[in-house]
Amino acid sequence: METVVSIPLSRAGVPMSRRRVLGAYLAEMRSECLRYLRAPGFILPMTLFSTVFYLMFGVLLNHGEASRYLLASYGAFGIMGPGLFGFGVSLAIERDGGLLTLKRALPMPPGAYLLGKMVMAMIAATLVMVLLLLIGVALAHVVLSWGQVLAMLLTAMFGVLPFCALGMFVGTLLKGQGAPGLLNLVYLPMAFLSGLWLPLSMLPGALQRIAPIWPSYHLNQLTQAAVGLNDAPLLGHVLVLVAFAVGFLLLAARRLRRYG
Amino acid sequence: MPHLRDPIAHLDAAVKRYGQLTALDRVDLCLRPGELLALLGPNGAGKTTAIGLLLGLIRAEAGAVGLFGQDPQQIGARRRIGVMLQNAELPPTLQVGELLRLTASYYPAPRTLAETAELAGVADLLKRPYAKLSGGQQRRVQFALALCGRPELLFLDEPTVGMDVEARQKLWAAIRQLLAEGCAVLLTTHYLEEAEALADRVCVMSRGRVIHESTVDALRARVALKRIRCISSVDAGVVGGWPSVSDAEQRQGRLHVTTAEAEAVVRRLLDADPQLSELEVQRAGLAEAFTELTREAEHASPASQREVA
Predict the structure, then answer these.
(1) Do B203 and B270 belong to one domain?
(2) Whole-angstrom Cα distance, residue B262 to residue B246?
(3) Partners of residue B130 in chain A, C-beta under 8 Å
Protein backbone atom coordinates (compact mmCIF):
# COMPACT_ATOMS: atom_id res chain seq x y z
CA MET A 1 0.00 0.00 0.00
CA GLU A 2 2.75 2.44 0.93
CA THR A 3 4.35 2.21 -2.51
CA VAL A 4 1.07 3.19 -4.10
CA VAL A 5 0.74 6.25 -1.89
CA SER A 6 4.33 7.36 -2.37
CA ILE A 7 3.98 7.73 -6.12
CA PRO A 8 3.24 11.39 -6.91
CA LEU A 9 -0.18 10.56 -8.22
CA SER A 10 -1.46 12.56 -11.08
CA ARG A 11 -5.07 11.94 -12.03
CA ALA A 12 -3.63 9.39 -14.41
CA GLY A 13 -3.07 7.00 -11.56
CA VAL A 14 -6.66 6.86 -10.35
CA PRO A 15 -7.90 3.34 -10.92
CA MET A 16 -11.56 2.52 -11.37
CA SER A 17 -12.74 0.75 -8.25
CA ARG A 18 -14.88 -2.33 -8.64
CA ARG A 19 -17.65 -0.55 -6.82
CA ARG A 20 -17.65 2.29 -9.31
CA VAL A 21 -17.72 -0.17 -12.22
CA LEU A 22 -20.76 -1.84 -10.70
CA GLY A 23 -22.25 1.61 -10.15
CA ALA A 24 -21.80 2.38 -13.85
CA TYR A 25 -23.73 -0.76 -14.80
CA LEU A 26 -26.53 0.17 -12.41
CA ALA A 27 -26.62 3.78 -13.62
CA GLU A 28 -26.92 2.57 -17.21
CA MET A 29 -29.81 0.23 -16.34
CA ARG A 30 -31.57 2.93 -14.37
CA SER A 31 -31.27 5.45 -17.21
CA GLU A 32 -32.44 2.96 -19.80
CA CYS A 33 -35.55 2.10 -17.77
CA LEU A 34 -36.33 5.71 -16.85
CA ARG A 35 -36.07 7.04 -20.35
CA TYR A 36 -38.55 4.54 -21.77
CA LEU A 37 -40.96 4.56 -18.85
CA ARG A 38 -41.23 8.29 -19.58
CA ALA A 39 -41.91 7.68 -23.28
CA PRO A 40 -45.49 6.37 -23.50
CA GLY A 41 -45.35 6.47 -27.29
CA PHE A 42 -42.75 3.76 -27.06
CA ILE A 43 -44.24 1.69 -24.22
CA LEU A 44 -47.97 1.72 -25.04
CA PRO A 45 -47.97 0.09 -28.48
CA MET A 46 -45.82 -2.69 -27.03
CA THR A 47 -48.19 -3.37 -24.16
CA LEU A 48 -51.53 -2.61 -25.79
CA PHE A 49 -51.25 -4.99 -28.74
CA SER A 50 -51.56 -8.16 -26.69
CA THR A 51 -53.86 -6.83 -23.97
CA VAL A 52 -56.41 -5.45 -26.43
CA PHE A 53 -56.36 -8.65 -28.46
CA TYR A 54 -56.88 -10.66 -25.31
CA LEU A 55 -59.74 -8.44 -24.20
CA MET A 56 -61.46 -8.94 -27.57
CA PHE A 57 -60.87 -12.63 -28.14
CA GLY A 58 -60.25 -13.93 -24.63
CA VAL A 59 -62.90 -12.00 -22.71
CA LEU A 60 -65.61 -10.79 -25.11
CA LEU A 61 -65.72 -13.65 -27.61
CA ASN A 62 -64.65 -16.67 -25.55
CA HIS A 63 -65.10 -18.14 -22.09
CA GLY A 64 -63.80 -20.90 -19.86
CA GLU A 65 -60.98 -23.08 -21.15
CA ALA A 66 -60.68 -21.03 -24.34
CA SER A 67 -59.85 -17.99 -22.20
CA ARG A 68 -57.18 -20.01 -20.40
CA TYR A 69 -55.69 -21.16 -23.71
CA LEU A 70 -55.74 -17.60 -25.11
CA LEU A 71 -54.18 -16.20 -21.93
CA ALA A 72 -51.17 -18.40 -22.65
CA SER A 73 -50.97 -17.68 -26.39
CA TYR A 74 -51.51 -13.91 -26.08
CA GLY A 75 -49.09 -14.09 -23.18
CA ALA A 76 -46.44 -15.43 -25.55
CA PHE A 77 -47.43 -12.77 -28.08
CA GLY A 78 -47.13 -10.07 -25.40
CA ILE A 79 -43.72 -11.29 -24.27
CA MET A 80 -42.27 -11.03 -27.77
CA GLY A 81 -43.10 -7.32 -28.22
CA PRO A 82 -40.81 -5.68 -25.65
CA GLY A 83 -37.91 -7.84 -26.80
CA LEU A 84 -38.31 -7.19 -30.51
CA PHE A 85 -39.29 -3.53 -30.31
CA GLY A 86 -37.50 -2.49 -27.14
CA PHE A 87 -34.23 -3.70 -28.55
CA GLY A 88 -34.67 -3.40 -32.29
CA VAL A 89 -36.24 0.03 -32.56
CA SER A 90 -34.08 1.73 -29.95
CA LEU A 91 -30.88 0.22 -31.32
CA ALA A 92 -31.72 1.26 -34.88
CA ILE A 93 -32.54 4.80 -33.78
CA GLU A 94 -29.48 5.16 -31.55
CA ARG A 95 -27.17 3.87 -34.27
CA ASP A 96 -28.68 6.48 -36.55
CA GLY A 97 -28.59 9.36 -34.08
CA GLY A 98 -24.97 8.89 -33.04
CA LEU A 99 -25.72 7.94 -29.43
CA LEU A 100 -24.21 4.48 -29.86
CA THR A 101 -21.05 6.02 -31.34
CA LEU A 102 -20.75 8.39 -28.38
CA LYS A 103 -21.25 5.52 -25.92
CA ARG A 104 -18.57 3.50 -27.64
CA ALA A 105 -16.16 6.43 -27.39
CA LEU A 106 -16.96 6.99 -23.72
CA PRO A 107 -15.53 4.63 -21.11
CA MET A 108 -18.86 2.89 -20.59
CA PRO A 109 -18.18 -0.60 -19.18
CA PRO A 110 -18.49 -3.26 -21.89
CA GLY A 111 -21.96 -4.66 -22.26
CA ALA A 112 -23.60 -2.07 -20.00
CA TYR A 113 -25.51 -0.66 -22.95
CA LEU A 114 -26.99 -4.02 -23.93
CA LEU A 115 -27.51 -5.10 -20.33
CA GLY A 116 -29.49 -1.91 -19.69
CA LYS A 117 -31.77 -2.60 -22.65
CA MET A 118 -32.12 -6.24 -21.60
CA VAL A 119 -33.27 -5.33 -18.10
CA MET A 120 -35.70 -2.79 -19.56
CA ALA A 121 -37.17 -5.47 -21.87
CA MET A 122 -37.47 -7.95 -18.99
CA ILE A 123 -39.34 -5.41 -16.89
CA ALA A 124 -41.63 -4.44 -19.78
CA ALA A 125 -42.41 -8.08 -20.62
CA THR A 126 -43.21 -8.80 -16.97
CA LEU A 127 -45.52 -5.77 -16.85
CA VAL A 128 -47.37 -6.95 -19.96
CA MET A 129 -47.79 -10.33 -18.31
CA VAL A 130 -49.13 -8.76 -15.11
CA LEU A 131 -51.74 -6.88 -17.17
CA LEU A 132 -52.77 -10.02 -19.05
CA LEU A 133 -53.01 -12.03 -15.82
CA LEU A 134 -55.18 -9.33 -14.24
CA ILE A 135 -57.50 -9.33 -17.25
CA GLY A 136 -57.55 -13.12 -17.31
CA VAL A 137 -58.35 -13.57 -13.64
CA ALA A 138 -60.62 -10.58 -13.08
CA LEU A 139 -62.53 -10.37 -16.37
CA ALA A 140 -62.27 -13.78 -18.01
CA HIS A 141 -62.48 -15.64 -14.66
CA VAL A 142 -59.56 -17.93 -15.45
CA VAL A 143 -58.67 -19.78 -12.25
CA LEU A 144 -54.91 -19.88 -11.65
CA SER A 145 -52.88 -21.16 -8.72
CA TRP A 146 -50.14 -18.93 -7.30
CA GLY A 147 -47.62 -21.35 -8.75
CA GLN A 148 -49.13 -20.88 -12.21
CA VAL A 149 -49.03 -17.10 -11.84
CA LEU A 150 -45.39 -17.28 -10.79
CA ALA A 151 -44.59 -19.60 -13.72
CA MET A 152 -46.17 -17.12 -16.15
CA LEU A 153 -44.20 -14.19 -14.69
CA LEU A 154 -40.92 -16.09 -14.84
CA THR A 155 -41.63 -17.20 -18.39
CA ALA A 156 -42.21 -13.57 -19.32
CA MET A 157 -39.07 -12.36 -17.60
CA PHE A 158 -36.75 -14.85 -19.26
CA GLY A 159 -38.76 -15.73 -22.34
CA VAL A 160 -38.24 -12.20 -23.65
CA LEU A 161 -34.49 -12.75 -24.04
CA PRO A 162 -34.43 -14.68 -27.35
CA PHE A 163 -36.60 -11.94 -28.82
CA CYS A 164 -34.22 -9.30 -27.50
CA ALA A 165 -31.48 -11.05 -29.47
CA LEU A 166 -33.64 -11.19 -32.60
CA GLY A 167 -34.63 -7.52 -32.17
CA MET A 168 -31.00 -6.58 -31.69
CA PHE A 169 -30.07 -8.38 -34.89
CA VAL A 170 -32.80 -6.56 -36.84
CA GLY A 171 -31.64 -3.30 -35.22
CA THR A 172 -28.17 -3.83 -36.68
CA LEU A 173 -29.57 -4.39 -40.18
CA LEU A 174 -31.03 -0.96 -40.69
CA LYS A 175 -30.91 2.49 -39.19
CA GLY A 176 -33.51 4.90 -37.97
CA GLN A 177 -37.21 4.83 -38.59
CA GLY A 178 -37.27 1.80 -40.89
CA ALA A 179 -36.92 -0.62 -37.99
CA PRO A 180 -40.52 -0.65 -36.67
CA GLY A 181 -41.84 -1.63 -40.11
CA LEU A 182 -39.41 -4.48 -40.54
CA LEU A 183 -39.98 -5.64 -36.96
CA ASN A 184 -43.74 -5.79 -37.54
CA LEU A 185 -43.04 -7.91 -40.62
CA VAL A 186 -41.21 -10.31 -38.33
CA TYR A 187 -43.49 -10.02 -35.30
CA LEU A 188 -46.97 -10.45 -36.73
CA PRO A 189 -46.42 -13.27 -39.27
CA MET A 190 -44.28 -15.18 -36.79
CA ALA A 191 -46.98 -14.91 -34.13
CA PHE A 192 -49.61 -16.11 -36.59
CA LEU A 193 -47.52 -19.00 -37.91
CA SER A 194 -46.75 -20.17 -34.37
CA GLY A 195 -50.42 -20.45 -33.51
CA LEU A 196 -50.57 -17.48 -31.16
CA TRP A 197 -53.67 -15.96 -32.76
CA LEU A 198 -55.45 -19.08 -33.96
CA PRO A 199 -54.68 -22.54 -32.57
CA LEU A 200 -52.24 -24.40 -34.81
CA SER A 201 -54.86 -27.10 -35.40
CA MET A 202 -56.91 -24.58 -37.38
CA LEU A 203 -53.98 -23.81 -39.73
CA PRO A 204 -53.12 -25.79 -42.90
CA GLY A 205 -51.05 -28.92 -42.31
CA ALA A 206 -47.93 -27.54 -44.02
CA LEU A 207 -47.88 -24.52 -41.70
CA GLN A 208 -48.43 -26.79 -38.69
CA ARG A 209 -45.40 -28.85 -39.65
CA ILE A 210 -43.04 -25.85 -40.00
CA ALA A 211 -44.28 -24.16 -36.82
CA PRO A 212 -41.38 -25.51 -34.68
CA ILE A 213 -38.87 -23.41 -36.64
CA TRP A 214 -40.30 -20.25 -35.00
CA PRO A 215 -39.05 -19.38 -31.51
CA SER A 216 -42.50 -18.09 -30.61
CA TYR A 217 -43.88 -21.63 -31.10
CA HIS A 218 -41.57 -22.85 -28.34
CA LEU A 219 -42.38 -19.91 -26.10
CA ASN A 220 -46.06 -20.71 -26.52
CA GLN A 221 -45.41 -24.30 -25.36
CA LEU A 222 -43.92 -22.84 -22.17
CA THR A 223 -46.79 -20.46 -21.45
CA GLN A 224 -49.33 -23.23 -22.18
CA ALA A 225 -47.49 -25.40 -19.67
CA ALA A 226 -47.50 -22.55 -17.15
CA VAL A 227 -51.31 -22.34 -17.22
CA GLY A 228 -51.61 -26.12 -17.07
CA LEU A 229 -52.52 -26.92 -20.68
CA ASN A 230 -49.29 -28.67 -21.75
CA ASP A 231 -47.94 -31.72 -19.93
CA ALA A 232 -45.25 -32.60 -22.48
CA PRO A 233 -41.57 -32.26 -21.49
CA LEU A 234 -40.33 -28.67 -21.72
CA LEU A 235 -36.55 -29.03 -21.75
CA GLY A 236 -36.41 -29.28 -25.54
CA HIS A 237 -38.31 -26.02 -25.96
CA VAL A 238 -36.12 -24.25 -23.43
CA LEU A 239 -32.97 -25.43 -25.20
CA VAL A 240 -34.26 -24.27 -28.59
CA LEU A 241 -34.97 -20.80 -27.13
CA VAL A 242 -31.52 -20.62 -25.51
CA ALA A 243 -29.85 -21.64 -28.77
CA PHE A 244 -31.92 -19.09 -30.65
CA ALA A 245 -30.93 -16.33 -28.21
CA VAL A 246 -27.23 -17.18 -28.32
CA GLY A 247 -27.23 -17.51 -32.11
CA PHE A 248 -28.80 -14.14 -32.81
CA LEU A 249 -26.78 -12.46 -30.07
CA LEU A 250 -23.56 -13.62 -31.74
CA LEU A 251 -24.77 -12.58 -35.19
CA ALA A 252 -25.78 -9.14 -33.92
CA ALA A 253 -22.58 -8.63 -31.92
CA ARG A 254 -20.55 -9.49 -34.99
CA ARG A 255 -22.42 -6.97 -37.11
CA LEU A 256 -22.10 -4.30 -34.41
CA ARG A 257 -18.35 -4.85 -34.15
CA ARG A 258 -17.91 -4.68 -37.91
CA TYR A 259 -20.23 -1.89 -38.88
CA GLY A 260 -20.97 -0.02 -35.63
CA MET B 1 10.60 14.47 -15.79
CA PRO B 2 11.11 14.10 -19.53
CA HIS B 3 8.26 11.62 -19.92
CA LEU B 4 5.80 14.40 -19.15
CA ARG B 5 6.26 15.67 -22.68
CA ASP B 6 5.58 12.28 -24.21
CA PRO B 7 2.56 12.34 -26.47
CA ILE B 8 -0.72 11.40 -24.83
CA ALA B 9 -2.36 10.67 -28.15
CA HIS B 10 -0.74 9.92 -31.47
CA LEU B 11 -1.23 8.59 -34.97
CA ASP B 12 1.82 7.20 -36.76
CA ALA B 13 1.43 6.85 -40.52
CA ALA B 14 -2.18 5.85 -39.98
CA VAL B 15 -4.10 4.64 -43.03
CA LYS B 16 -7.85 4.17 -43.27
CA ARG B 17 -9.75 3.35 -46.45
CA TYR B 18 -13.46 3.24 -47.13
CA GLY B 19 -13.73 1.15 -50.28
CA GLN B 20 -12.04 3.15 -53.04
CA LEU B 21 -11.67 6.25 -50.91
CA THR B 22 -8.57 6.77 -48.83
CA ALA B 23 -9.92 8.70 -45.87
CA LEU B 24 -6.55 8.88 -44.14
CA ASP B 25 -3.30 8.52 -46.03
CA ARG B 26 -0.31 7.92 -43.72
CA VAL B 27 -1.27 10.60 -41.25
CA ASP B 28 0.97 11.53 -38.32
CA LEU B 29 -0.57 13.37 -35.43
CA CYS B 30 0.71 13.96 -31.95
CA LEU B 31 -0.81 15.60 -28.92
CA ARG B 32 1.16 16.52 -25.79
CA PRO B 33 -0.15 17.08 -22.25
CA GLY B 34 -1.87 20.38 -21.68
CA GLU B 35 -1.87 21.69 -25.23
CA LEU B 36 -4.71 22.53 -27.57
CA LEU B 37 -4.31 21.23 -31.08
CA ALA B 38 -6.81 22.46 -33.64
CA LEU B 39 -7.53 20.16 -36.53
CA LEU B 40 -8.65 22.20 -39.53
CA GLY B 41 -9.75 21.25 -42.98
CA PRO B 42 -12.67 21.24 -45.39
CA ASN B 43 -15.41 18.63 -45.18
CA GLY B 44 -14.13 15.22 -46.14
CA ALA B 45 -10.55 16.09 -45.23
CA GLY B 46 -10.34 13.20 -42.78
CA LYS B 47 -10.70 15.04 -39.47
CA THR B 48 -13.54 12.88 -38.19
CA THR B 49 -11.76 9.72 -39.34
CA ALA B 50 -8.64 10.78 -37.44
CA ILE B 51 -10.70 11.34 -34.30
CA GLY B 52 -12.51 8.03 -34.83
CA LEU B 53 -9.16 6.24 -34.82
CA LEU B 54 -7.99 7.99 -31.65
CA LEU B 55 -11.26 7.11 -29.91
CA GLY B 56 -11.05 3.47 -30.96
CA LEU B 57 -14.30 3.70 -32.95
CA ILE B 58 -12.57 2.44 -36.07
CA ARG B 59 -9.40 0.50 -36.73
CA ALA B 60 -6.46 1.71 -38.80
CA GLU B 61 -5.50 -0.52 -41.71
CA ALA B 62 -1.85 0.39 -41.34
CA GLY B 63 0.22 2.49 -38.99
CA ALA B 64 -0.11 2.88 -35.25
CA VAL B 65 -2.65 4.57 -32.98
CA GLY B 66 -2.00 5.31 -29.33
CA LEU B 67 -3.96 6.89 -26.51
CA PHE B 68 -2.03 7.30 -23.26
CA GLY B 69 0.36 4.67 -24.53
CA GLN B 70 -2.43 2.14 -25.00
CA ASP B 71 -4.76 0.90 -27.69
CA PRO B 72 -7.75 3.31 -27.61
CA GLN B 73 -10.07 0.31 -27.51
CA GLN B 74 -8.72 -0.37 -24.00
CA ILE B 75 -11.26 1.08 -21.62
CA GLY B 76 -8.45 2.17 -19.28
CA ALA B 77 -7.18 4.65 -21.88
CA ARG B 78 -10.65 6.01 -22.55
CA ARG B 79 -11.29 6.62 -18.83
CA ARG B 80 -8.84 9.52 -19.19
CA ILE B 81 -10.67 11.25 -22.04
CA GLY B 82 -13.82 13.28 -22.50
CA VAL B 83 -15.74 13.30 -25.77
CA MET B 84 -18.05 15.70 -27.56
CA LEU B 85 -19.00 14.44 -31.00
CA GLN B 86 -20.52 16.39 -33.87
CA ASN B 87 -23.95 14.87 -33.57
CA ALA B 88 -25.24 12.73 -30.78
CA GLU B 89 -28.95 12.55 -30.10
CA LEU B 90 -29.06 11.95 -26.36
CA PRO B 91 -32.07 10.26 -24.74
CA PRO B 92 -34.80 12.91 -25.08
CA THR B 93 -36.76 12.04 -21.93
CA LEU B 94 -33.81 12.09 -19.52
CA GLN B 95 -33.10 15.24 -17.53
CA VAL B 96 -29.78 17.02 -17.89
CA GLY B 97 -28.79 16.11 -14.32
CA GLU B 98 -29.54 12.44 -14.99
CA LEU B 99 -27.46 12.47 -18.17
CA LEU B 100 -24.55 14.04 -16.28
CA ARG B 101 -24.78 11.53 -13.43
CA LEU B 102 -24.87 8.62 -15.88
CA THR B 103 -21.83 9.78 -17.83
CA ALA B 104 -19.91 10.63 -14.65
CA SER B 105 -20.53 7.07 -13.42
CA TYR B 106 -18.22 5.78 -16.20
CA TYR B 107 -15.18 7.57 -14.71
CA PRO B 108 -12.99 6.75 -11.70
CA ALA B 109 -12.88 10.24 -10.17
CA PRO B 110 -15.42 12.52 -11.85
CA ARG B 111 -16.24 16.11 -10.99
CA THR B 112 -19.21 16.74 -8.76
CA LEU B 113 -22.46 17.53 -10.52
CA ALA B 114 -22.33 21.13 -9.29
CA GLU B 115 -18.75 21.62 -10.50
CA THR B 116 -19.54 20.26 -13.96
CA ALA B 117 -22.71 22.31 -14.26
CA GLU B 118 -20.90 25.49 -13.21
CA LEU B 119 -17.99 24.96 -15.58
CA ALA B 120 -20.17 24.19 -18.61
CA GLY B 121 -22.83 26.78 -17.76
CA VAL B 122 -25.72 24.32 -17.47
CA ALA B 123 -26.57 24.86 -13.79
CA ASP B 124 -29.97 26.29 -14.71
CA LEU B 125 -30.82 23.31 -16.96
CA LEU B 126 -30.29 20.35 -14.60
CA LYS B 127 -33.98 19.53 -14.11
CA ARG B 128 -34.96 20.01 -17.75
CA PRO B 129 -35.55 17.06 -20.08
CA TYR B 130 -32.97 17.03 -22.85
CA ALA B 131 -35.57 17.22 -25.63
CA LYS B 132 -36.95 20.51 -24.27
CA LEU B 133 -33.64 22.33 -24.72
CA SER B 134 -32.69 24.60 -27.61
CA GLY B 135 -29.96 23.49 -29.99
CA GLY B 136 -27.38 25.70 -28.33
CA GLN B 137 -28.34 24.45 -24.86
CA GLN B 138 -28.06 20.85 -26.06
CA ARG B 139 -24.53 21.55 -27.26
CA ARG B 140 -23.68 22.99 -23.84
CA VAL B 141 -25.00 19.83 -22.20
CA GLN B 142 -22.89 17.71 -24.54
CA PHE B 143 -19.89 19.80 -23.56
CA ALA B 144 -20.74 19.24 -19.89
CA LEU B 145 -20.84 15.47 -20.54
CA ALA B 146 -17.40 15.70 -22.12
CA LEU B 147 -15.78 17.35 -19.12
CA CYS B 148 -17.69 15.68 -16.25
CA GLY B 149 -15.21 12.81 -15.94
CA ARG B 150 -12.29 15.16 -15.13
CA PRO B 151 -10.49 14.07 -18.32
CA GLU B 152 -6.84 14.70 -19.14
CA LEU B 153 -7.68 14.91 -22.81
CA LEU B 154 -10.81 16.34 -24.34
CA PHE B 155 -12.00 15.59 -27.87
CA LEU B 156 -14.19 18.39 -29.17
CA ASP B 157 -15.58 17.82 -32.65
CA GLU B 158 -17.08 21.09 -33.94
CA PRO B 159 -18.19 22.12 -30.44
CA THR B 160 -19.68 25.53 -31.21
CA VAL B 161 -21.83 24.70 -34.22
CA GLY B 162 -25.30 26.07 -33.58
CA MET B 163 -24.21 28.39 -30.75
CA ASP B 164 -24.76 32.11 -30.69
CA VAL B 165 -21.85 34.49 -30.20
CA GLU B 166 -22.28 34.78 -26.44
CA ALA B 167 -22.56 31.03 -25.88
CA ARG B 168 -19.48 30.52 -28.03
CA GLN B 169 -17.48 33.01 -25.97
CA LYS B 170 -18.54 31.23 -22.77
CA LEU B 171 -17.50 27.88 -24.18
CA TRP B 172 -14.13 29.31 -25.16
CA ALA B 173 -13.70 30.62 -21.62
CA ALA B 174 -14.51 27.17 -20.23
CA ILE B 175 -12.01 25.56 -22.61
CA ARG B 176 -9.33 28.04 -21.49
CA GLN B 177 -10.08 27.14 -17.87
CA LEU B 178 -9.67 23.43 -18.62
CA LEU B 179 -6.39 24.13 -20.42
CA ALA B 180 -5.21 26.08 -17.37
CA GLU B 181 -5.96 23.01 -15.26
CA GLY B 182 -3.64 21.03 -17.52
CA CYS B 183 -6.22 19.29 -19.67
CA ALA B 184 -5.20 18.79 -23.31
CA VAL B 185 -7.74 19.40 -26.08
CA LEU B 186 -8.06 18.11 -29.60
CA LEU B 187 -10.43 20.48 -31.37
CA THR B 188 -11.87 20.25 -34.84
CA THR B 189 -13.61 23.31 -36.12
CA HIS B 190 -14.84 25.15 -39.18
CA TYR B 191 -14.50 28.47 -37.42
CA LEU B 192 -10.98 29.69 -37.96
CA GLU B 193 -11.39 32.41 -35.36
CA GLU B 194 -11.99 29.59 -32.89
CA ALA B 195 -8.61 28.08 -33.71
CA GLU B 196 -7.03 31.53 -33.59
CA ALA B 197 -8.54 32.22 -30.20
CA LEU B 198 -7.65 28.92 -28.55
CA ALA B 199 -5.04 26.87 -30.32
CA ASP B 200 -1.37 26.39 -29.48
CA ARG B 201 -0.87 24.46 -32.67
CA VAL B 202 -2.92 23.95 -35.79
CA CYS B 203 -2.89 20.99 -38.09
CA VAL B 204 -4.44 21.49 -41.51
CA MET B 205 -5.80 18.44 -43.30
CA SER B 206 -6.91 18.01 -46.87
CA ARG B 207 -7.98 14.85 -48.66
CA GLY B 208 -6.76 12.52 -45.99
CA ARG B 209 -3.34 14.09 -45.51
CA VAL B 210 -1.82 16.53 -43.07
CA ILE B 211 -0.71 19.36 -45.33
CA HIS B 212 0.49 21.76 -42.67
CA GLU B 213 1.31 21.68 -38.99
CA SER B 214 2.59 24.64 -37.00
CA THR B 215 1.63 27.34 -34.55
CA VAL B 216 -1.21 29.69 -35.48
CA ASP B 217 1.27 32.54 -36.10
CA ALA B 218 3.49 30.40 -38.29
CA LEU B 219 0.50 29.34 -40.34
CA ARG B 220 -0.53 32.94 -40.86
CA ALA B 221 3.02 33.96 -41.73
CA ARG B 222 3.23 31.17 -44.26
CA VAL B 223 0.88 33.13 -46.39
CA ALA B 224 2.52 36.46 -47.02
CA LEU B 225 -0.61 38.14 -48.32
CA LYS B 226 -1.70 41.47 -46.89
CA ARG B 227 -4.93 43.32 -47.26
CA ILE B 228 -5.06 47.02 -48.20
CA ARG B 229 -8.22 49.01 -47.71
CA CYS B 230 -8.70 52.67 -48.62
CA ILE B 231 -11.04 55.23 -50.16
CA SER B 232 -9.65 56.08 -53.57
CA SER B 233 -10.74 57.03 -57.04
CA VAL B 234 -8.28 54.62 -58.66
CA ASP B 235 -10.16 52.01 -60.65
CA ALA B 236 -10.12 48.51 -59.12
CA GLY B 237 -9.66 46.96 -62.58
CA VAL B 238 -6.51 48.98 -63.10
CA VAL B 239 -5.07 48.04 -59.71
CA GLY B 240 -5.87 44.40 -60.43
CA GLY B 241 -3.46 44.58 -63.35
CA TRP B 242 -0.52 45.76 -61.28
CA PRO B 243 2.31 43.29 -60.56
CA SER B 244 2.00 41.16 -57.36
CA VAL B 245 -1.65 42.17 -56.83
CA SER B 246 -3.66 38.97 -56.48
CA ASP B 247 -7.05 40.61 -56.10
CA ALA B 248 -8.61 44.09 -56.23
CA GLU B 249 -12.22 45.18 -55.99
CA GLN B 250 -14.45 48.06 -55.03
CA ARG B 251 -16.77 47.16 -52.11
CA GLN B 252 -18.97 49.45 -50.00
CA GLY B 253 -17.22 52.54 -51.32
CA ARG B 254 -13.78 51.22 -50.53
CA LEU B 255 -11.02 49.78 -52.61
CA HIS B 256 -9.91 46.32 -51.34
CA VAL B 257 -6.55 45.03 -52.56
CA THR B 258 -4.89 41.73 -51.68
CA THR B 259 -1.17 41.55 -52.36
CA ALA B 260 2.09 40.03 -51.24
CA GLU B 261 3.95 43.35 -51.72
CA ALA B 262 1.93 45.79 -49.64
CA GLU B 263 4.61 48.49 -49.48
CA ALA B 264 5.12 48.76 -53.24
CA VAL B 265 1.39 48.74 -53.95
CA VAL B 266 0.67 51.41 -51.33
CA ARG B 267 3.41 53.63 -52.81
CA ARG B 268 1.95 53.25 -56.29
CA LEU B 269 -1.58 53.90 -55.02
CA LEU B 270 -0.51 57.12 -53.29
CA ASP B 271 1.29 58.24 -56.45
CA ALA B 272 -1.76 57.55 -58.56
CA ASP B 273 -4.22 59.21 -56.17
CA PRO B 274 -2.94 61.97 -53.84
CA GLN B 275 -6.52 62.26 -52.46
CA LEU B 276 -6.45 58.69 -51.15
CA SER B 277 -7.77 58.45 -47.57
CA GLU B 278 -8.46 56.04 -44.69
CA LEU B 279 -5.59 53.77 -45.64
CA GLU B 280 -5.40 50.44 -43.74
CA VAL B 281 -2.93 47.59 -44.19
CA GLN B 282 -3.52 44.25 -42.49
CA ARG B 283 -1.83 40.90 -42.47
CA ALA B 284 -4.17 38.27 -43.89
CA GLY B 285 -5.98 36.20 -41.24
CA LEU B 286 -5.99 32.49 -40.73
CA ALA B 287 -8.91 32.24 -43.14
CA GLU B 288 -6.84 33.44 -46.08
CA ALA B 289 -3.90 31.29 -45.07
CA PHE B 290 -6.16 28.32 -44.83
CA THR B 291 -7.84 28.93 -48.18
CA GLU B 292 -4.44 29.32 -49.79
CA LEU B 293 -3.14 26.08 -48.26
CA THR B 294 -6.11 23.96 -49.20
CA ARG B 295 -6.11 25.44 -52.71
CA GLU B 296 -2.50 24.40 -53.12
CA ALA B 297 -3.41 20.92 -51.96
CA GLU B 298 -6.33 20.77 -54.42
CA HIS B 299 -4.06 21.72 -57.29
CA ALA B 300 -1.50 19.14 -56.28
CA SER B 301 -3.99 16.35 -55.79
CA PRO B 302 -5.26 15.12 -59.20
CA ALA B 303 -2.28 12.80 -59.62
CA SER B 304 -2.68 11.23 -56.20
CA GLN B 305 -6.43 10.90 -56.75
CA ARG B 306 -5.78 8.85 -59.84
CA GLU B 307 -3.48 6.59 -57.88
CA VAL B 308 -6.29 5.81 -55.51
CA ALA B 309 -8.91 5.16 -58.18
Answers:
(1) no
(2) 11
(3) none
